[in-house]
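ingest -> validate -> predict -> emit
validate: passed (alphabet ok, no gaps, 159 aa)
predict: started
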Amino acid sequence: MAEHAKLDARPARDNGKEAHAKLDSSNTTSKRVKRFIPLENNPEVLNPLVHKLGLSPSLQFHDVFSIDDPELLSFTPRPAHALLMCFPVSKAYENYREEEDKQKEDYEGAGDGEQVVWFRQTIRNACGLYGLLHGVCNGDARDHIGAYTSSFRRGYLYL
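emit:
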């Protein structure tokens, strides 16, 4: 993507549908569950999204073709600040994660003294969005958040 490419003002789309939050009405209990149409994980969607949100155009998302083949890894620009991975989730994986998480205490840290900013995912199908937030709000990438979104950074430090 060229550094000064025109940013598309249309919302991100997934299979022709606008990506936005919905309430899951299939839940038979009175409790309604928030869920997202999954965010498409590719540079053509992620770059315009994060730049519109105030991330510096000097940071870009790129496709990674391998995580273990040195020749294919050489196509990945450096430095790389984060890696968003797509992988299929099965019922067995979900059960494993639920069991593993039961034994862990909820993370309670917040504020400038914390080395890592952590957002607990509370919206179904939003793992791509949460991965994106974790990637840009931590490490060296957080230094590339634009001036007008610095209030956002101050705000999320105390969530």
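The beta strands are 13-14, 17-18, 21-24, 33-36.
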